[in-house]
Design goal:
The protein contains 9 helices and 7 strands. The chain is globular, with a radius of gyration of 18 Å. 44% of the residues are buried. The protein has a 7-stranded parallel sheet, with helices on both faces. The longest helix is centred in the middle third of the chain and has 29 residues. The structure holds NADP nicotinamide-adenine-dinucleotide phosphate. The site of NADP nicotinamide-adenine-dinucleotide phosphate (NAP) has 31 residues, from α1 and α6.
Length: 257
């Protein structure tokens, strides 16, 4: 029996990871801010799949929250075999429209928490010679688009570099780069989604299945959908100056993903 810790487990992509990993027989540590929702989720997954599901309430925008999760990841008597750094959010508006406190909160959750939790987890995993980390980034990492895209670009670069440093240790790291996924993300950020064409939407359960296949194959970056793979291929060939203009216009309409 192995244990997976998922941040932001109560909704969207994190909840899809929890469903899939529980169905595969993994025990879980579920992390988010809403204790009631976490407890309901833990009970439901335990009853349905017979796995153990621990609840860890933590706000990853605070030092105490990050520390609490890092301490759990470092517990050598109850090891965590897979960490999914998934908690995240979007801020509505363009650079300078977003209050600085909200920008800093995003850096704390998307960057500092990911760094500290990955480090706590991989230090313990390296001692055991096995383990995995999935850091949820976004295709927004590949286009110039405000703090959100910049924070996700950091996640991709950091994960690739750490994966290289840990090569041969038995510990795998992968950055997961989804496109638009139907979750609570856009509603929470107050972003409209009416203009996003249907074909751009991904299903969270299919996304997670593809991500876990990519992790098993040893990929360090996963863009788990042919539509977005093709789009990102085009993005790579487009000059960044042109890309900046296009994404700043669409960014106003669609918000980050
Ligand atoms: N949806 C998309 O289109 C999309 C696309 C690409 C990448 N992503 C990325 O995927 C990840 C998950 O997003 P989602 O779409 O699944 O969002 P979601 O449906 O809004 O779920 C977000 C989860 O994160 C938790 N969370 C938020 N802030 C937190 C904090 N400060 N501390 C601890 N937990 C926190 C939430 O629970 P509580 O509120 O209870 O804390 C919830 O469980 C994010 O990193 C996002 O950037 C999303």
């Amino acid at each position: 029996m192995t244990t997976a810790l998922i941040t932001g487990s109560t909704a969207g992509i994190g909840a899809a990871f929890a469903r899939r990993l529980a169905a595969d027989g993994h025990d879980l540590v579920l992390v988010a801010r809403d204790t009631e929702r976490l407890t309901e989720q833990a009970t439901e997954l335990h009853d349905r799949h017979g796995i153990e599901a621990e609840v860890l309430t933590a706000d990853l925008a605070t030092d105490e929250g990050i520390e609490a999760v890092a301490t759990r990841l470092g517990d050598r008597r109850n090891p965590v075999d897979l960490l999914v750094n998934n908690a995240g959010f979007g801020n509505k508006g363009r650079y300078l429209d977003v209050p600085m406190a909200d920008e800093l909160r995003m850096i704390k959750v998307h960057v500092e928490a990911v760094l500290r939790l990955t480090s706590a987890a991989t230090a313990a995993m390296r001692e055991r010679g096995r383990g995995g980390v999935v850091n949820v980034a976004s295709v927004a990492a590949f286009v110039p688009r405000g703090t959100y895209g910049a924070s996700k670009a950091w996640v991709v670069q950091f994960t690739q570099g750490a994966a290289r440093d840990l090569a041969g240790s038995g510990v795998r790291l992968m950055a997961l780069c989804p496109g638009f996924v139907r979750t609570e993300f856009h509603q929470r950020a107050g972003m409209g989604t009416d203009n996003i064409p249907n074909w751009m939407w991904l299903d969270a359960d299919k996304l997670v299945a593809a991500a876990l296949t990519d992790l098993a194959r040893g990929r360090t970056v996963s863009i788990p959908d042919p539509r977005y793979k093709a789009l990102m291929g085009l993005v790579k060939m487009t000059p960044r100056s042109l890309l900046g203009g296009v994404t700043s216009r669409t960014g106003r309409k669609y918000g980050p993903q």
